[in-house]
Amino acid sequence: MIDLSNIAIIGSGPTSLYLLQNIWTHIDVFKNKIGKISIFEKDKILGFGMPYNPSNTDVFNMANISSEEIPKLQESFGDWLRSQNRELLTKFNISEFSIDDSEVYSRIALGYYFHEQFNQLLTAIKATGIEVNEHGDAEVIDLLQKKNGRILLTDSQHKKHTFSTVIIASGHLWKEKDNLKAGYFASPWPISKILPNEGTFYNFPVGILGASLSAFDVVTSLSHRHGEFVSVENKLKFLKHKEASNFKIVLHSAEGWLPHLQYEQQEPLREIYRHFSRRQLLDLIGDEGFLRIEDFFEKLCRPSLIAAFTKDNLLDVVEKLQQEAFSFKDLVTLMSEKHEYVNSFEGMKAEMITAKDSINNKIPIYWMETLDDLMYSLNYHSELLPAEDHIFLHKEIMPFLMNVIAALPLQSAEIFLALYDAKCIALKAGKVIFNDDSFENDKIKITVEFEKDGKKEMEYNLFINCGGQKSVELENFPFQSLVKQGSIRRATTNFATSTITDQLIKELDASKIMHDGDCTRLILSGIDIDSSYRTINENGTPNNSLYDINFTHTNGLRPYSYGLQACNATSLILVESWVSEIVEGENISNNIENITALYEENEEL
Ligand SMILES: Cc1cc2nc3c(=O)[nH]c(=O)nc-3n(C[C@H](O)[C@H](O)[C@H](O)COP(=O)(O)OP(=O)(O)OC[C@H]3O[C@@H](n4cnc5c(N)ncnc54)[C@H](O)[C@@H]3O)c2cc1C
């Protein structure tokens, strides 16, 4: 049975905020069940979240989500912005004061919005008689489950607290160490650390690993410190500062891709069963209990994608999709080729015309939106995929998907193209390798391996790794007592085929294979959870006292949980599981029929 009398939430970012919002939605059910909520936040101030916190982020860093795409809180982002004075909006780098719900704004503006929604929710919850304790500047450093099932929490001041239920919502973690002597930053966060001191310039090329949205943050923040952007005949131009004549940014990306651009959407919010019914999906589950990705593509994706590409008038793709032999991988290859240019900046210029047409004339790009919906749906059924399909998804599909969904706002793309026209940015395709001697001198040395033409050594005075966060495994799980006592375990999955081919074993890292008696299992990233985010212990028992809704801990079983919509969906599923247990006396995560019934019935999923 669940015991919500005394709950703790670790972290006060968007996931925590949406958890509170979803508790608030069912406050009639919870007001006599929840006695006390304690929120622990390592930052001094609660309610911002990592990417939106002014201590991490720069005013030039843009969100890639507009008000109409942000799941419901107490008031919408657009309405909140409209109620702020111009002075504050200017501080958020907003100069166009007629706020548009489909426009994107700075992440700092979003952070202050979240902070205020957080405070409003806490006030509302407190008013119902629930005690709420806010612990700022209180990093949780360990968790341990006591014999009586209660969770003992230790904070950074070594204070110990005991709770009936703990929810981990601790989000991003950037643990890798910088090497300042070699001019190497292991991540760009907080972004203030990579900026030159006021009045000084980086008068040399700066290397960046990755061409992701974080890399774009670095590009916008550094370029604003090395010159100014002016509008000439409706076109953005970059004028480099005279003391920074050698300033240039060199992006290193394995595939040599720049992200896709922001596009108009018909339905700004994702939906699990938009393109097919729950029953259609459940009918695909085979006798062994697996959902095969090829069946998912064939039966559920292909018809929706044909419809979407037809609406986009991409008839060459429609023709291919109509051929049975044209597989999911073929589609990814074809669409990647369409996005692959001899010169990616010239490609971005060409895509900019379509993207502007899409946004300005409100013409959706249906295939991108449909693909995002389909993958969002697959995400919430990923526990049904066998090992072979997890491998396929990660290797063949995810790099492309990440490039499509992490769409670049058009304002950021304009900055990019202005830098390109000013010859201040370059993109190098190839895999970056750090060697033993990479950090030995006062310049970092990297090796770039090209797909075709061998390799090349390069040196940088300053190199910023924007390759993203490392996956969280048991070894680097932040609350080690849980690992030691076996309260959590790795996420794993069975293979569908009993004989695993030598080819597959050769392709896999041996440390990813686990032998369990006669059974061979694939070790996925992160920890094991059930579908309502209860952690699973080493004996396979779900824990009613410990939930993990940190997407970086659970990305093996929920591989496509990105962004604010996932923050809401995750906490909503958890809260609905409590409601069902309290009202119906039933745990919905025990079988796929029940949890998918929730996905189908709830309008926000
Ligand atoms: C650079 C960047 C830009 C992004 N931009 C967007 C965007 O524009 N749109 C979008 O939809 N998504 C964006 N995302 C995705 C992002 O993951 C989510 O929007 C969101 O921030 C996730 O919220 P969270 O609460 O799970 O994690 P976080 O935002 O990381 O918040 C977690 C909170 O927990 C605290 N915390 C961590 N560990 C502890 C601990 N041990 N004890 C106490 N407190 C702790 C942290 O200080 C933080 O406040 C972006 C991500 C990054 C990295």
From TrEMBL:
SUPFAM superfamilies: FAD/NAD(P)-binding domain
FAD-dependent urate hydroxylase HpyO/Asp monooxygenase CreE-like FAD/NAD(P)-binding domain ranges (all copies): 8-172
A Pfam family this chain is assigned to: NAD_binding_9
Domain of life: Bacteria
PANTHER family reported in the protein's UniProt record: BLR0577 PROTEIN (PTHR40254:SF1)
Protein name: Acyl-CoA dehydrogenase
